[in-house]
Amino acid sequence: AQKVTQAQTEISVVEKEDVTLDCVYETRDTTYYLFWYKQPPSGELVFLIRRNSFDEQNEISGRYSWNFQKSTSSFNFTITASQVVDSAVYFCALSDPLDTGRRALTFGSGTRLQVQP
Amino acid sequence: NAGVTQTPKFQVLKTGQSMTLQCAQDMNHEYMSWYRQDPGMGLRLIHYSVGAGITDQGEVPNGYNVSRSTTEDFPLRLLSAAPSQTSVYFCASSYSDKGWRSEKLFFGSGTQLSVL
Hints:
With 117 residues, chain A is mainly β. Helices cover 0% and strands 51% of the residues of chain A.
């Protein structure tokens, strides 16, 4: 079954705290792609990162970092020194299997992050 | 650089009314899709298209129609609106070649639809 689980529905932190958003996935594909999107209060969806399944290097972009572990089927997202502007809903997504013929992403239910000043 | 443009941003309908959500992209993307976002459920695929004249169903297609007469436009039609279709709708597009699975989606700004 194709599934993305974001078990944390809502997280609240105080500014400058570090926070990790969890993403666990299930897929029958051996090659797949994982994504993170951000949805700020204004409502648009903003692409953050893409990761393919054969590249397990962690990635850092400024205060953002991603930890991909194929052995545990997880693709976690960490924000270091959080800021109020990080307040948003964050979605993890997984590319659909090749044999479905359907070109789409399966999204998790999202994690709402509130960063308090 | 407009990207993906959705209209309207907000809409209120009565049960049984029909309407069309418009979506246009200016990036010459072959792939376009419609998702709906409901609380606690993430985004779910309604319909998608891999090119002009080609459409297919997604996860939740019932009650919706689509067509793709041009590369740029991919309207979503609600035939007879129901309260269960109250949701936020997003149109998305991406490149579509043999590496399509790695392509990120470009999203429109969304349409908030309420059906009374």
